[in-house]
Specification:
mainly alpha, 71% helix, single chain, 0% strand
């Protein structure tokens, strides 16, 4: 079923992503390559939308601070909004035809 398949994909990812990664990351591991690719895509995104001062913009946005409670919560939410779609797109591409099973 779809639920079993999704649960299997999550277990595969949990096995591939270390609980306590060692730095510097090794590009030859799935996790190291994933983090490197996310960083590349985020840099390209920042270059395209020219949003290098996003932390300052979040700090100056009073509405976000009021709804977020703390500056740390606001930044965490913003990072989630930016990173999760990139992470999802990479995983979707990598797992096309169940390629995660090969790792």
């Amino acid at each position: 079923t779809k639920k079993e398949w999704a649960a299997h994909r999550i277990r595969v990812l949990l096995d591939l992503i270390p609980q306590n990664p060692q730095f510097p990351l090794d590009d030859q591991t799935f996790y190291g390559a994933l983090v490197k690719q996310i960083a590349i895509l985020l840099k390209e995104r920042d270059d395209v939308i020219n949003d290098r001062q996003w932390v300052l913009n979040e700090a100056l946005n009073g509405r976000n601070l009021q709804s977020g409670g703390t500056f740390q919560n606001v930044l965490s939410r913003r990072l989630d909004e930016v990173i999760i779609p990139v992470f999802s797109a990479i995983l979707s591409f990598v797992d096309r035809y169940s390629n995660l099973d090969l790792l």
